[in-house]
Amino acid sequence: MPEGPEIRRAADSLEVAIKNKPLTDVWFAFPELKTYASALIGQHVTQVETRGKALLTHFSGGLTLYSHNQLYGVWRVVKTGDTPETRRVLRVKLETADNTILLYSASDIEMLTPEQLKTHPFLLRVGPDVLDMTLTPRKVKERLLSTKFCNRQFSGLFLDQAFLAGLGNYLRVEILWQVGLTGDHKASQLSDAQLDALAQALLEIPRLSYHTRGQVDDNKHHGALFRFKVFHRDGEPCERCGTRIERTLLASRPFYWCPGCQH
User: Fold this and answer.
1) Annotated binding-site positions for DNA
2) Disulfide check for 99: which of 17, 106, 166, 261 has CB 3.0–4.6 Å away?
């Protein structure tokens, strides 16, 4: 499943394609959404917002399209008039004179009024987004130490969108390697220095992934690029201590770690 950085990059591409351009055609697969299509023609998308793995497409008339890709949903950008070859099932089409954005295979799609946006169950439950640049390590540390989260093992906590939105399995793995901790640890067990390092990594690694993942490190002066240190690298030596990286299951998801320097 795509994690926060991938969802945010997808939202960026959707904004570039159609933001502030009048909609010339709108189509929805689900009957409960079809009634909105004609009213949206002539409006424009003002913003494509992410809340963790959910995507909010805001329209100039005040409505918001909520979508969650879950396992199979995917957005595509095409030139208007083009029809991609795919076996996926089309759910949403938002068309402008130049570009069209298409949502395939997703099943969790709703149209929300401003009032419904404030009371949507998922949006009420989801925690602060790791890609929200107003979120600071201090606030993350406070969240780690809160009664709600301080005694939960990181293996499950870092997959819970109620803690921090946008985290997922590869980020969980890489963050814990970065700070030398295992999935069995809890915030209540850590020293102040460990908490500070963890709070920093919980923001730094997702943001590095968002900004740089997929780029080629041709110019070292551009700074660090995100790359996997342990994820999908079982059997390889840890670059920090040389111990062989291992793979196990934690919270029903594959977990990669170094037994030599994560303890």
Assistant:
1) 70, 125, 169
2) 17
- Three-point CA angle 24, 29, 30, nearest 5°: 120
- For residue 156, give both structure tokens: 């499950």
Tell me the CA distances in angstroms from 162 to 138, 143, 156, one per residue in order: 18, 11, 11
Distance CA(110)–CA(168), nearest Å, equals 23
Active site (catalytic) residues: 2-3, 53, 253
Q: Residues at the annotated binding site? A: 70, 125, 169
Task: Please state, in angstroms and rounded to a whole number, the distance separating the CA atoms of residues 18 and 24.
Answer: 11
Give the tens place of pLDDT for each residue, 208-246: 999 987 565 555 444 578 889 999 999 999 999 999 999
Spell out a b/e string for 69-87, using b for 16 or more CB atoms within 10 Å of the CB, else e.
Answer: beeebebbbeeeeeeeeee
Q: Residue 42 in contact with residue 16, Cβ under 8 Å? A: no
